[in-house]
Amino acid sequence: MSDSFTKGMARNIYYGGSIFFILIFLGLTLHTTKEMPKRDHRENITEAVERGKELWEKNNCIGCHTLIGEGAYFAPELSNVYQRRGGGNLDSFKAFMNGWMKAQPLNIPGRRQMPNFHLTDQEIDDLAEFLKWTAETDTNNWPPNDEG
Ligand code: HEC
């Protein structure tokens, strides 16, 4: 028996390793596909939520904010802003959003600025509905605190 590393051994590690990680990848994909319907409460995606998501994309909110950890780290995480600023109540949150979006930019020296997007009341309500839906997805309690 040879004690050197042969081409055959390298080939077996290559194929064996590839198959091993492909199986893990397939297993995790299957797990995700099975778990998502339990966590994303897709039955609550109303037309308002859809419109809100479209506005979220069109105005590139994610260019500054994160949503469930994805996005830019310039401005606060917004997947829990519904709890943070609305206390989990839709009417309070819509009122907060309406005041917040219209008050921008705050022009407070030394504080980061958010632009004014000149949205209508309806559009702000739709964004609130989208952020509420996001807040209520099951993310294993992430982010860990209300300030996100
Ligand atoms: C150019 C960067 C930028 C963009 C784009 C942006 N924001 Fe902001 N946003 C900020 C900053 C900075 C703050 C924090 C401002 C402060 O605390 O004075 C903020 C704060 C907020 C808050 C309050 C968060 C809290 O915890 O009180 C909400 C809600 C919000 N943004 C929603 C949005 C939405 C919706 C959009 C897209 C329509 C958007 N933002 C796009 C920069 C941005």
Per DSSP E runs of 2 or more residues, the count of β-strands stands at 2
Output the CATH class name of the largest domain.
Mainly Alpha
Order of helices and strands: HHEEHHH
What's the main sheet like? 2 strands, antiparallel
Give me the secondary-structure category.
Answer: mainly alpha
Number of discrete helical segments:
5
Please state how the strands of the largest beta sheet are arranged side by side: 1-2
Bound molecules: heme C
- CATH-level-2 architecture of the largest domain: Orthogonal Bundle
Any overview of this molecule?
- There is one protein chain.
- The protein is mostly helical and 148 residues long.
- The protein folds into two domains: 1-39; 44-148, Cytochrome Bc1 Complex, Chain D, domain 2.
- The protein has helices at 7-39, 47-58, 81-86, 90-103, 121-135; strands at residues 66-67, 70-71.
- A two-stranded antiparallel sheet has the order 1-2.
- The chain starts with 6 loop residues before the first helix and ends in a 13-residue tail after the last helix.
- 16% of the residues are buried.
- The model has no long low-confidence stretch (mean pLDDT 95).
- The protein binds heme C.
- Heme C (HEC) is lined by residues 59-61, 63-65, 74-76, 78, 81, 84-85, 100, 106, 111-115, 117, 127.
Question: What's this entry about, in short?
Answer:
The protein is mainly alpha-helical and about 150 residues long.
List the helices and strands and how they pair.
Blueprint: H1 7-39, H2 47-58, E1 66-67, E2 70-71, H3 81-86, H4 90-103, H5 121-135
Antiparallel strand pairs: 1-2
Helix pairs in contact: 2-5, 4-5
Residues 59-61, 63-65, 74-76, 78, 81, 84-85, 100, 106, 111-115, 117, 127 line the site of heme C (HEC).
Domain Cytochrome c: 47-135
InterPro entries: Cyt_c-like_dom (IPR009056), Cyt_c-like_dom_sf (IPR036909)
Transmembrane segments: 12-32
